[in-house]
Design brief:
eight-stranded parallel sheet; three-stranded mixed sheet; 15 strands; binds nicotinamide-adenine-dinucleotide; binds UDP-4-deoxy-4-formamido-beta-L-arabinopyranose
Length: 359
């Protein structure tokens, strides 16, 4: 049975953790990444953790020739597509870069997949596609809208995938909508390594705790939430990685039923997945202040903070309904906020400068 998976963006934060989970689940992986937001050191560390070299191609998803070569050299069962740019603020100042990388790059990938008849895809989508949610918890049927180019690029790719599934029912397309991924591998060897001053809360907190940044600015304390600060559904990156394995297992199981069951007379028996969006979250909301308190306790560090005005585009609360993932993928997040803080702290204190100048 073909268990070879192309992992675009596999050198990045979520990609590296997912490679480890895929390997442990018996999948063969080929990482394809242009290293625009990652490093060879990350790949080296994944190789050490899994005990064998990683099959790595340095390439850009917008480079059709280079992608084709990967499909000539390997026979893939499917693709997990992490490659993309993800900084919301930067997307506002560089919209063309974001649409080119995230949308055009995905179209190029899909065209090459079609050419080589590989039609199984798991795509990194985001809870950002829900915009300001009308209901909580957010389920997959909630309306979608985005206000920034990064979010628009994710939503546009989702629309493309929906259209593709309608045009040809042999595609199996699962966008996984991540809530707020945090944490690191329990070994402390891999984790999130922001290039600059972090935009996101957890890496900001951990850099304050380790003494790289003086204090946290909390964006708003007048939201209609438990303590006035924003509430998010933080999910441990290793749980998230496991969610990808569960989605792939589901896809494999469904498509193999299709292969073996093709002589079934009823047309209801078709097992093409089409377009199947699934939330990956814990279903639990945690406020900014609650996360700061949990991190402070785990790290035994004081985390100075002050309140500043709300950040443009932020919403009050966002957390997932995790039921669809539980029912269809038989997956649920298991790790707690304490685990998330502990593992982030281990990674941060063992690698105060991320992968640069590694010890
Ligand atoms: P990341 O930046 O750590 O990883 C993305 C990887 O893609 C990097 O290694 C980068 O070098 C690579 N890449 C970017 N453009 C490429 C291109 N054109 N060709 C080849 N490789 C390219 O980000 P991450 O946090 O691991 O996120 C992975 C995916 O999940 C992204 O698509 C992101 O938008 C999405 N996502 C992330 C979050 C989050 O909070 N981290 C939340 C929701 C969705
Ligand atoms: C969380 C909370 C902030 C930083 C973003 C993207 C989203 C997705 C995940 C990719 C909010 C507050 C933050 C700080 C703060 N990424 N905060 N001080 O905004 O929920 O989601 O990352 O798809 O698209 O928008 O995550 O970690 O930035 O913020 O007070 O220095 O922490 O206001 O309430 P967010 P975040």
């Amino acid at each position: 049975m073909n268990k070879k998976i192309l992992v675009t963006g596999g050198a990045g934060y979520i990609g590296t953790h997912t490679c480890i989970a895929l390997h442990a689940a018996g999948y063969d992986i080929v990482v394809y990444d242009n290293l625009s937001n990652s490093s060879r050191e990350a790949i080296n560390r994944v190789s050490i953790l899994i005990g064998q070299p990683i099959d790595f191609i340095e390439g850009d998803i917008r480079d059709a020739e280079s992608l084709r070569q990967a499909f000539v050299d390997h026979r893939f069962f499917g693709v997990i597509h992490f490659a993309g740019l993800k900084a919301v603020g930067e997307s506002v100042t560089k919209p063309l870069l974001y649409y080119n990388n995230n949308v055009s790059g995905t179209i190029t990938l899909l065209e090459v997949m079609r050419q080589y008849n590989v039609k199984n895809l798991i795509f990194s989508s985001s809870a950002t596609v829900y915009g300001d949610p009308k209901f909580l918890p957010i389920d997959e049927s909630s309306s979608r809208s985005c206000t920034n180019p990064y979010g628009q690029s994710k939503l546009t790719v989702e629309h493309i995938l929906e259209d593709l599934a309608v045009s040809d029912e042999s595609w199996n397309l699962i966008p996984l909508r991540y809530f707020n991924p945090v944490g690191a591998h329990p070994s402390g060897q891999i984790g999130e390594d922001p290039n600059d001053i972090p935009n996101n809360l957890m890496p900001y907190i951990s850099q304050v705790a380790v003494g790289k940044l003086p204090k946290l600015s909390i964006f708003g304390n007048d939201y209609p939430t438990i303590d006035g600060t924003g509430v998010r559904d933080f999910i441990h990156v290793t749980d998230l990685a496991q969610g990808h394995v569960a989605a792939l297992d589901y896809l494999k199981q469904q498509t193999s039923i299709e292969e073996h069951g093709s002589d079934e007379k009823s047309s209801d028996k078709k097992n093409s997945i089409g377009f199947l969006p699934i939330n990956l979250g814990t279903g639990k909301g945690t406020s900014v202040l609650e996360l700061v308190a949990a991190f402070s306790k785990v790290s035994e560090q004081n985390i100075p903070y002050h309140f500043v005005s709300r950040r443009a585009g932020d919403i009050a609360s966002c957390y997932a309904s995790a039921d669809k993932a539980k029912d269809m993928l038989k997956w649920r997040a298991k790790l707690s906020i304490t685990d998330m803080c502990q593992d982030t702290w281990r990674w941060q204190s063992m690698n105060p400068n991320g992968y640069d100048g590694s010890i």
